[in-house]
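Chain A, query sequence.
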Amino acid sequence: MRKLWPLLMAGSVGAMGFQVASAEDYQLLVGSYTAGQSQGIYRLNFDAATGQIDAKPLQVIKSENPSWLTLSTDQRQLFVVNENGPGQTDPVGRVSSYAIDPKTHELSLINQVQSLGNEPTHSSLGFEASHLFVSNYSVAEDPGGTLAVLPVGADGKLKPVVQMSSHPSSRVNPERQMSAHVHSTVSSPDGQYVFSNDLGADQIFAYRFDPKVNPELPLTAATPASVQLPPGSGPRHLLFSADGKHAWLTMEMSAQVAVFDYKDGQLKQTQMVELATGQPVSDKAAAALHASRDGKFLYVSNRGTANQLLVFSIDPASGHLKELQRRSVEGDHPREFSLDPSGKFLLIANQKSNQIVVVERDSKTGLLGKTVQKLPMNAPSDLKFLVRQ
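Chain A, predicted structure.
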């Protein structure tokens, strides 16, 4: 049975404003792993005309393993998971909140709280930014992964965890699926549901989200409570289409992308796309996926020994994918990537080869072109753009 654990810590909640920002002038935030030479979060200038990242940081924020960065819609706050766990410099999983100066983009720490789990690997904001959903991946079988829910104040201050959820594992893969491994959690476009992707369970778990009814227990199991995926597939990241009618899911262990129709809290699978057909298991390590701003193209990274970015066209009616291109990332382990706000460039965080690779992108065809820069960066893990307000 799935468990929902209420905690006694409750806090006030608040809403953050929504604003569409201009892409004429922007900066880049880089999250990283800090077991090597990286100090944490880097804020850098990005030239939208040339695609060049300035190698000299505007700011370096010291932080332990800030592997995933979540921006509020108005870009006034940044929430960071500190992917700590046993055997690391800091063995305690944490979540940090930063204020962002709207004019200079200078970051300043608001507060930090524990995630109550090991190796928190992802976070996302709920509807009206009242809560942050943190995915504690937990590499070790014991205690396993959990979903943690943290209230967020109007000033961006994080409150302690108020609710946690755990899931039974599939145990299909004896090395990687003996316990839950919650990899990411995202809200539905209508804000009424939350979907948590568990690599260890081979399922997407669905919740209704209603903090107004009970701010201490904002999640309740939806109907149906989960979406079953192929045994040993290892779901990782879920992305909804801009119109909210479709969704795509990377499955890390099987190197596949599942396509869903979405309506009223229910995901119905309509297509399964192979990223590494006929290739060895070492080529199967699907990771990030992002859609172009116009909704015409989907980009997916596959790590392992493949180290590729795949480009797909998106059928506007069905959300189905058609492969257009496979391109080398020119590095190792593309954990994350990002399309710049102009849509002319795509930036790749090659974690194990310690570099950010910038490639040109044709906004009409969606195809990726030549490499314009390879910037040395120790263990980059996430990339987010800041635009001038």
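Residues 1-23 have pLDDT under 50 and may be disordered. The CA atoms of residues 127 and 279 lie 40 Å apart.
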